[in-house]
Each structure stands twice: as C-alpha cells, then as structure tokens.
Amino acid sequence: MLDIRYIRDNADAVQLNAQNKGYDVDIKKLLDLDSERRQKLIEVDEFRAKRNENISSANGSRPTEDSIAQGKVIKEKLGEIELQLKTLNSDYMSLLKQVPNMSSPDVPVGKSEDENVVVKTIGDIPKFDFVALNHSEIATKRGWLDKERAAKVTGSRFAYVMGDLVKLQFAVIQFVINTLSDEDKITEIANNAGLKVSSRPFIPVLPPLMIRTEMYDAMDRLEPKDDRYKLEGDDLWLQGSAEHVLGSMHSGEIFDEADLPLRYLGYATSFRREAGTYGKDMEGILRMHQFDKLEMESFTTADDGPNEHLLFVAIQEYLLSQLGLPYQVVKKCTADIGKPNSIGVDMEAWLPGQNKYRETHTADYMTDYQARRLQTKVRRASGDLELIHTNDATAFALGRIMIAIIENGQTSEGKVNVPSVLQPYLSGRTIL
User: How far apart are CA 147 and CA 170, in angstroms?
Assistant: First the structure.
C-alpha cells in the first residue's frame, strides 16, 4: 500500500492516479479518517496518562472515594475512546488498502487495454503454403491433448497433457532454468540491453502451492476473489502464480544491502477460475483452471528497482527470441497495469491459429507497495532501514508458450519443428 504521508502531501495526484487506473477511491474521505484517527490517538494517550497518574497517586496510600470514582470515569472514557479508535482504524485501513500504487510517469494514460501501446515488433510472421491449424487441432490429432476425458474427471477447462507435449514442456523448463541460473548469461542479456545491473543469477524454487489469506492480501494479489480458489474449512487459497508465494516468503525480514538483488525463479502449478472467457480462448490449453508457470521474482533496493524491471523485460525478449518466435512488446496503460503495479509491460507472441498476437508474458514493477504491508526491508550500507522494492515477471507460462511453439512450428503433415535451443533437451530431436 502507499505511505499515508505521501498521500497527505499529494492528495490530488493520488486521486487522479486512482481514477486513471479505474479505482473508485475517495481520497478526501481517507484523509478525514486519518485526521480523526490521529486525534483519537492523542486522546487515548492523554487518558492513559491520566489513568497512570491516578494509579500512581493511590500507590502507598489508601484510595479515597474521589480517586476511585475518578478512576472509574477515566476507565470508562478510555474504553469508549479506544472502541472509537478501533472502528476508525478498521475503516481507515480498509480505505487505505483500496488506494492503488502510483503509476510511473511514463505509463500511458488509458481507460482499457485497447489503449495499450505497442512499442516494438520483432520477428517475421510465418507464411504457410497450407491451411494453418490451431494448437488444439494439432495436439489432439497427435494424442498430446485430451480434454474430453479431463472433462469427465474434473469438468471443463482441464486437460490431460501427454506424450511429446509433456517432453516439450520439460525441455522448456530445463532451458529456462539453465539460462537464468547462469551468471554469464545474465551478464550477456544485461549488456545487450545496455543495463548496468548485478549479474547475480536466479535461484530455482519449487514453492508451496497454497497461501494464507493474510499473505495473499498483503501481496495485494487476492483480488478479484471470484478468480481465486479457496480451500473450504481452511485459511488457505490455491495460489494464482508463483510470485504470490515468492514475494511473500520474506515478510517481516530485513536484508543486508550486500545480499541484494535476490532473484528467484519459481516453478508452480497455478490455479485460476478464468471466468467470463469464451470462443477461441476455450480451445485447447490457452485458458485453463490449472496451468504451469515459470515466474521471476526479485527483491532490490529502491535505487535498483527500475533497472531490475528492464532486466526482466530483456530476459523475456531473450527467451522468446531464442525460441525463434515472432512477438511484440506492449507498454500497458494505467487502466491495465493493475492495482499494486507502478509499471506493466506485456509480451505478445504471434499465434497463427488465431491470426493475431496474444499475451504470453507480463512484467510488473511494484516499487515498495507490497513491501510496506509485508514489512520486508533492507539495511543499507549506511545503516538506514528502507522498504525493499519488488519486481515479478513471467519467464514462461508453459501452456501458452507451447501453443506458440506448436502453431509457429507446424508442418503440412501436422508435425512440429523443435526450436534449436530445445533440441538438446529432447535427445537431439528436430521434429515432434
């Protein structure tokens, strides 16, 4: 969440930012609650001092009827004010949590994703001398995908992924892990992007697949709740992406500056309801209730946060280019970047089966918005304590990237060419 002191000093800008992001938040009401709350805190302190004074004056001597009566009045008044303060604190915190993070000045102002800005397009769209199929048609014919039997077992939007498609997924996973855990490769990617950042590699992580309500809420990733799966009878949710459980794992901790940046590469099976989608999004494995992702998460100082975001974007471009996939880089507008995000960038790969670019990656920079509630801090070399800054970004959403590989690499025989960087992980096979 935002620092209330920042909101006090920049009320108009915070209100405008909320409107640009599409959030109906009353900043004036928040500041009125803040003022009233601070006044009640003063009153509580005053009555606690009177209570202590009354107790102190009675020590060592027999309490008088007046001191006893006065003590009762003070106790009743203090209880009344503390109850008022409790209500004020609840209302104040509820409203403060609704205030979105400030958008970076270079984020385009827009009312919907239609106003996102394509900043560059890379690669040539493949031209086929046959009628291109979508991934679902190819994978079903090859015995790689069975949604019919999955529907019998679990309902719609689940699938049995089988055979060579399983091998392809694990080849992608190994390729990404080897790339991001290689310090020389991080240096190469950073240098090619003109970034002066640490070359510290990513630590691979298999995180928990569940998260407590408190942590999910502190990450500000619990909303929209209708899109999340809650475990009945437990204070646990199925996480919707690995960064939800990676970003929260250091809550309440203090890093030494020398230990940053700390970079994680999490692999997790994730869960979302994906309500309200239809048409081609229902085909194959594009939008599933259960899906696998490789997600990047990092913790940095405030100074390094912006360049860390650019490194994550550069990594995403590198991974896509290594697979030989045509893609475009999209700068998301204010209405589309999300509540906790300061900046949001998407990668969209070309899908011949849909004859358009579709999102395969997102990169989000949250500044200290998540860290404030998580209370994750860094002790700077100077000794000062500061909130850390967080970045998260998709390395690969496995289902979507396999869709792109299948559809762009398809042959007239319904087979799939294997990108050269994945061939070593598939025993040298060049075609599936």
Answer: 20
- Yes or no: say if 146 and 159 are a contact pair by the CB < 8 Å rule: yes
Q: Are 227 and 211 in contact (CB under 8 A)?
A: no
Please report the pLDDT score of residue 137 as a whole number. Answer: 95
Cα–Cα dist 324/317, whole Å: 11
Q: Give the integer Cα–Cα distance in Å for 421 and 430.
A: 10
Q: Where in the chain is the domain with CATH 1.10.287.40?
A: 4-98
User: What are the structure tokens assigned to 196, written together?
Assistant: 């002066």
Q: 0.85 cut: is pTM over it? A: yes
Q: CATH number of the domain at 113-426, please?
A: 3.30.930.10
Tokens of 261: 């940046």
DSSP annotation of 93 reads H
Say which residues have a Cβ less than 8 Å from residue 281's Cβ, sequence separation at least 6. 287
SS3 state at 336: coil
- Rounded to whole angstroms, the Cα distance separating 312 from 268 reads 19
Which helix (H) or strand (E) element contains residue 390? Answer: strand 389-397
DSSP-derived secondary structure letter, 326: -
Residue in 216, 223, 213 with CA at minimum distance from that of residue 98: 223
CA separation for the pair 76, 80 (Å, rounded): 6
Q: What is the pLDDT of residues 383-412, one digit of tens each?
A: 999 999 999 999 999 999 999 999 999 999
In this structure, how many other beta carbons lie within 10 angstroms of the beta carbon of residue 322? 15
Question: Which residue bears the tokens 């239809």?
Answer: 278
User: Thinking of the domain 4-98, which architecture would CATH place it in?
Assistant: Orthogonal Bundle (1.10)
Q: What is the rounded CA–CA span in Å between residue 27 and residue 52?
A: 37
Span(s) in the chain for CATH 3.30.930.10: 113-426
